[in-house]
Amino acid sequence: MLLELKYDEKGLIPAIIQDAENGDVLMMAYMNESSLKMTIDTGFTHFWSRSRQKYWKKGETSGNLQEVKEIFYDCDADALLIKVKQHGGVACHTGNRTCFFRKIELK
């Protein structure tokens, strides 16, 4: 399965994190092959931080862990959709439930 995935030139693939219970899109982060394997092996999301250049387990310091329920990949095999149970109720580092709390108003 992992061999089918298409990572970008930096070895990364975008991962959209969705609440498995209500469908809310919680966040988007990047994974590489190793962080995806850590996610599969542990059952909790792990990502690659582009700014810090290191792995991070979501919620490791805040307690807002993401327990993985299902992992999908798209038709082009270049994006992931990970359905999770969000522990702690907050996914965003700003303290909001989801990272998508700002809206562009349409005319």
Report on this model:
The protein is mostly beta strands and 107 residues long. It has a single domain, classed as Phosphoribosyl-AMP cyclohydrolase (Ubiquitin-like (UB roll)). 9% of the residues lie in helices and 35% in strands. The chain contains one helix and six strands. A four-stranded mixed β-sheet has the order 2-1-6-5, covered by helices on one side. A two-stranded antiparallel sheet has the order 3-4. The longest helix is centred in the middle third of the chain and has 10 residues. It is globular, with a radius of gyration of 14 Å.
Summarize the structure.
The protein has 107 residues and is mainly beta. The chain has one helix spanning 33-42, and strands spanning 13-19, 25-31, 46-49, 54-57, 66-73, 80-86. Keywords: Amino-acid biosynthesis, Cytoplasm, Histidine biosynthesis, Hydrolase, Magnesium, Metal-binding, Zinc.
What order do the helices and strands come in, and which of them pair?
Blueprint: E1 13-19, E2 25-31, H1 33-42, E3 46-49, E4 54-57, E5 66-73, E6 80-86
Parallel strand pairs: 1-6
Antiparallel strand pairs: 1-2, 3-4, 5-6
